[in-house]
Specification:
335 residues, alpha/beta, Rossmann fold
């Protein structure tokens, strides 16, 4: 590893951090030195990168000396503290939390959609919410072709979107059910095994949750459509990996089903998976481990002459987080 960059991964022991390490390896990102950071309780643990053990360090200003690129996979509060500190040490920060997404000085980037935004950073770039990424990927080609007028999106979100604690809740409750024991909710507000929870994040005064507000505000920022009407509902489901979204879109210019299929098929990062007669449509078990978002169930809205319904599924740990973040870094250092 004589050439390349000195890269830091903050939150390296979490689900998103672990995925970041895998994606950096898979995409052969030019890493000369990898430094891993996590919370104090994880300091001293070992993570693996390119077959080599890396000891997890404590987040301290001096530890980032010489770091050129840092991926922050910590929570919002931690990112607000860490990212400016890491930037001051000389690194460019790609942050995956919600801390900076709506900051007008911070680009919110999905490389297939708005790569130009990455050019205007001041040392911190934001990766959108995982649900937003999965939803906005098929919206972009439709917007370019027909101009979006209204979007209704209902998400079905995997427990790994809530990190390792969400995964543990589903696993432990499922095993308890199989043993005939009571299912105890330790992370989610209710048992998630064999259940649906129509609450992700806290409720706001208007009755919408924080997750739903992110979907609205981030989509508008990415597409540069500040007044686009968006009606969101986000639901946690008993699936380990992949977020699924049922989307209804109204466009200024009518887009037929055939045209939509062409647009989706040609757009980078999307995969058309739509053969209903063969029961071929996107499902989490099909999409898990993939970087593309899969689109299917494309059909005209029976209630509106210029509207379409479709179903999109994406691996939220990969394209919804780690892959998108590494793609942002590739934009910055592609030369």
């Amino acid at each position: 590893m004589a050439s390349g960059l000195t890269v830091a991964v903050v939150g390296a022991t979490g689900a998103a951090g672990q995925a970041t390490l895998r994606i950096l390896e898979e995409r052969k990102f030019p890493v000369r030195e990898l430094r891993a950071f996590a919370s104090e309780r994880s300091v001293g643990k070992i993570v693996t990168f390119r077959g080599e053990p890396i000891r997890v360090q404590k987040v301290e200003p001096w530890a980032f000396k010489g770091v050129e690129l840092a991926f922050c996979s910590a929570g919002s509060a931690q990112s607000k503290e860490y990212a400016p500190m890491i930037r001051a040490a000389g690194a460019i920060v790609v942050d995956k939390s919600s801390a900076f997404r709506m900051d007008p000085e911070v680009p919110l980037v999905v490389p297939e959609i708005n790569p130009h935004a990455a050019k205007h950073h001041t040392g911190i770039l934001a990766c959108p919410n995982c649900t937003t990424i999965v939803t906005v990927m098929p919206l972009k080609p439709l917007h370019d072709a027909g101009q979006l007028r209204r979007v209704i999106a209902t998400s079905y979100q995997a427990v790994s979107g809530a990190g390792v604690n969400g995964i543990a809740d589903l696993r432990e409750q499922t095993l308890a059910w199989a043993r005939g024991e009571a299912m105890v909710a330790r992370h989610f507000p209710h048992p998630i095994a064999f259940n649906l929870i129509p609450q992700i994040d806290r409720f706001q005064p208007d009755g919408y949750t924080g997750e739903e507000a992110k979907l609205v505000n981030e989509t508008r920022k990415i597409l540069e459509t500040p007044d686009l009407p968006i009606s969101p509902t986000t639901v946690r489901v008993p699936v380990f990996t992949c977020h699924s979204v049922a989307v209804n879109v109204e466009t200024e210019t009518k887009i037929t089903v055939a045209r939509a299929r062409q647009l989706f098929e040609r757009f980078p990062g999307l995969k058309l998976w739509d053969e209903p007669a063969q029961q071929r449509y996107p499902m989490p078990l099909v999409v898990e481990g993939q970087d593309d978002c899969y689109v299917g169930r494309i059909r005209e809205d029976l209630s509106h002459p210029r509207a379409l319904n479709f179903w999109v599924v994406g691996d939220q740990l990969r394209k919804g987080a780690a892959t998108n973040a590494v793609q942002i870094a590739e934009l910055l250092f592609q030369s």
